[in-house]
């Protein structure tokens, strides 16, 4: 997957505001290229999490079209994909660090990461343990996620998001509960892995955001 193209995408909840809506994303023609880094800024309630859900195929309550484009291949309309095709995309092409994290609280931090890695077989145990060390949660591998702080859970969720191949990675409010030092460590790890995979990065924010070199900032 080389490009994600948004053609006039507009959430149904905003249809009544179509003529007055001022957005660099909604109801616009947008191309998100592999290898580039994007920041999507928005006030609360402007649909940044909805945008992630649309791209990931968890929601389809929008007008317009989202297309996945492959060089030398046919552009694919996201709304036409089958459940099996979506499963393959989420496993091989698009990863996500969700705002609500979606971790299993009854499992340990390491178990939450290993569940994903067993599905993909993508990363070594050493890579995973090195990530825990880099993000200063090496002492939390055997801790139940439900007993960890939200900031610690955010770091676990990032590691889980990295143990798969991807052309694009979405990070929805990834550092809302982190101090500057841990946010910087997360940013370095995310960028390093994206570079190795030649992947695009899409970060959403309603204020505090990862301090990365963004190729484009889009006001939602």
Keywords summarizing the entry:
alpha/beta
The total count of strands amounts to 9
Q: Helical region count?
A: 6
Number of domains: 1
CATH class: Alpha Beta
**What does the radius of gyration come to?**
17 Å
**CATH H-level homologous superfamily name:** P-loop containing nucleotide triphosphate hydrolases
Percent range of helical residues: 25-40%
Q: Structural class from helices and strands? A: alpha/beta
Distance N to C terminus: 24 Å
Q: What is the CATH architecture term?
A: 3-Layer(aba) Sandwich
Spatial strand sequence of the major β-sheet: 6-7-8-3-9
- Gross morphology is globular
Mean pLDDT: 95
The SSE order reads: EEEHEEHEHHHEHEE
Strand % is 15-25%
Named CATH topology: Rossmann fold
Report on the biggest sheet.
Answer: 5 strands, parallel
Which regions contain 5 or more consecutive residues with pLDDT less than 50?
Answer: none
């Amino acid at each position: 997957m080389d490009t994600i193209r948004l053609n006039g995408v507009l959430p149904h909840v905003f249809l009544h505001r179509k003529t007055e809506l001022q957005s660099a994303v909604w109801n616009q023609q947008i191309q998100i290229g592999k290898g580039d880094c994007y920041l999507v800024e928005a006030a609360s309630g402007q649909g940044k999490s909805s945008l992630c859900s649309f791209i990931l195929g968890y929601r389809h309550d929008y007008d317009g079209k989202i297309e996945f484009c492959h060089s030398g291949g046919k552009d694919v309309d996201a709304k036409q994909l089958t459940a099996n095709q979506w499963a393959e995309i989420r496993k091989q092409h698009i990863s996500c660090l969700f705002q609500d994290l979606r971790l299993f609280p009854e499992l340990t931090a390491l178990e939450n990461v290993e569940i994903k890695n067993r599905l993909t077989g993508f990363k070594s145990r050493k890579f995973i343990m090195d990530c825990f060390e880099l993000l200063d949660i090496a002492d939390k591998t055997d801790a139940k996620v439900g007993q960890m702080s939200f900031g610690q859970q955010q770091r676990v969720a990032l590691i889980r998001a990295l143990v798969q191949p991807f052309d694009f990675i979405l990070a929805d409010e990834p550092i809302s509960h982190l101090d500057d030092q841990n946010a910087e460590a997360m940013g370095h790890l995310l960028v390093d892995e994206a570079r190795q995979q030649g992947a695009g990065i899409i970060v959403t924010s309603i204020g505090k955001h990862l301090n990365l070199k963004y190729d484009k900032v889009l006001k939602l």
